[in-house]
């Protein structure tokens, strides 16, 4: 009998240990792992976010809750509302468990919180992009990510990207902080310093490039973009408009709106001297109008010469016709 007891004890020691059922463990504060329920990166919870709450063995407390405008949530049977905005899901798990314990609803509650939908972290991209949009910042989002989601920059995009963020002042007032990002540094040079991280709440605006307007005696009047912040000038504007017409005058005019002025200043340009390289080229700024007037005297002279030729040709033709007959 003793021998049988010893053998039974040895067999029990050799048998593999059966796995014990484990309860869900609480995750430490500030976790950034993926949420198994919603598959969204765990970020700080904000106002208007939709969160999923699961209480172990308490289906009456398991539900989805929208965070209110004041940043709090309310659960059934709890007298006090729970502040949720600004917390990570793991922090909110602890806050809900503590509230259930303090109000003696559950003895040792085990709570799991997941973010079902973010609405508190909007990023808007507008202006000179192919597909303006607003999306929620989840995980790591950079400025290039936001521009890519908007389909990239359009052809008339300017030289800078403006990123606006709300900033709270020491006195409690909220103001907007604007950061200017050079397009050439961000895209052409791929400088990581300018590919800033976006946390949500940013407004990204891509202004259109400046234009200069060329009118008058040129072959192709129109509005022309000033790309990549490049400087423009009278000669560049004439090149874009494919050159002067035969009756262009010697004097051109730049019409420029000055800051704070209601009208436009008229700036005369000695076009003939600029074209003959006897005077320096004149720079143009955005929204300048370059007007090339008509040389009426030259046009009248040429018209008179053409008329004389036509009359002379007609007389000569009549004389030849008479002689032939």
How many DSSP helices?
Answer: 7
CATH architecture of the largest domain: 2-Layer Sandwich
Helical proportion, percent range:
10-25%
Residue windows where pLDDT falls under 50 for at least 5 positions: 1-37, 318-324
Note the run of SSEs as H and E: HEEEEHEEEEHEEHEEEEEHEEHEEH
The neighbouring-strand order within the major sheet is: 7-6-12-9-10
Radius of gyration: 38 Å
DSSP summary, beta strand count: 19
Q: How many domains would you count in the coordinates?
A: 4
CATH class of the largest domain: Alpha Beta
Structural features, described:
- It is built from 7 helices and 19 strands.
- With 325 residues, the chain is α+β, with helices and mostly antiparallel strands.
- The protein has 4 domains: 26-117, wza like domain (wza like fold), CATH 3.30.1950.10; 122-206, Outer membrane lipoprotein wza domain like (Outer membrane lipoprotein wza fold like, Roll); 211-294, Outer membrane lipoprotein wza fold like, CATH 3.10.560.10; 297-325.
- Strand 13 (211-216) and strand 14 (222-225) form a beta hairpin.
- It is rod-shaped, with a radius of gyration of 38 Å.
- The N and C termini lie far apart (157 Å).
Keywords summarizing the entry:
325 residues; alpha+beta; wza like fold; Outer membrane lipoprotein wza fold like; five-stranded mixed beta sheet; 7 helices; disordered N terminus; disordered C terminus
């Amino acid at each position: 009998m003793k021998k049988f007891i010893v053998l039974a004890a040895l067999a029990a020691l050799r048998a593999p240990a059966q796995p014990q059922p484990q309860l869900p463990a609480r995750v430490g504060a500030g976790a950034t792992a993926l949420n198994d329920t919603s598959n969204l990166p765990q970020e700080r919870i904000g106002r208007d976010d939709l969160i999923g709450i699961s209480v172990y063995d308490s289906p009456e407390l398991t539900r989805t809750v929208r965070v209110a405008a004041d940043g709090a949530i309310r659960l059934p049977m709890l007298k006090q509302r729970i502040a949720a905005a600004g917390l990570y899901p793991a922090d909110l798990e602890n806050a809900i468990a503590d509230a259930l314990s303090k109000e003696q609803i559950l003895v040792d509650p085990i709570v799991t919180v997941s973010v079902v939908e973010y609405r508190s972290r909007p990023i808007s991209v507008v202006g000179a992009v192919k597909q303006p949009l607003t999306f929620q910042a989840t995980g790591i989002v950079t400025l290039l990510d936001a521009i890519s989601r908007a389909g990239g920059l359009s052809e008339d995009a300017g030289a800078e990207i403006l990123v606006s963020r709300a900033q709270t002042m020491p006195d409690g007032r909220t103001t907007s902080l604007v950061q200017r990002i050079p397009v050439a540094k961000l895209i052409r040079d791929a400088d990581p310093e300018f590919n800033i991280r976006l946390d949500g709440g940013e407004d990204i605006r891509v202004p259109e490039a400046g234009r200069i307007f060329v009118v008058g005696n040129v072959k192709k009047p129109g509005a022309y973009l000033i790309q990549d912040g490049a400087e423009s000038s009278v000669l560049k504007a004439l090149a874009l408009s494919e050159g002067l017409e035969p009756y262009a005058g010697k004097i051109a005019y730049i019409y420029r709106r000055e800051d704070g002025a209601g009208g436009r200043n008229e700036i005369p340009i000695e076009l003939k001297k600029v074209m003959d390289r006897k005077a320096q080229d004149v720079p143009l700024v955005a929204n300048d109008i370059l007007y090339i007037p008509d040389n009426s005297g030259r046009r009248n002279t040429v018209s008179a010469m053409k008329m004389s030729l036509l009359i002379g040709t007609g007389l000569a033709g009549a004389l030849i016709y008479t002689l032939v007959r």
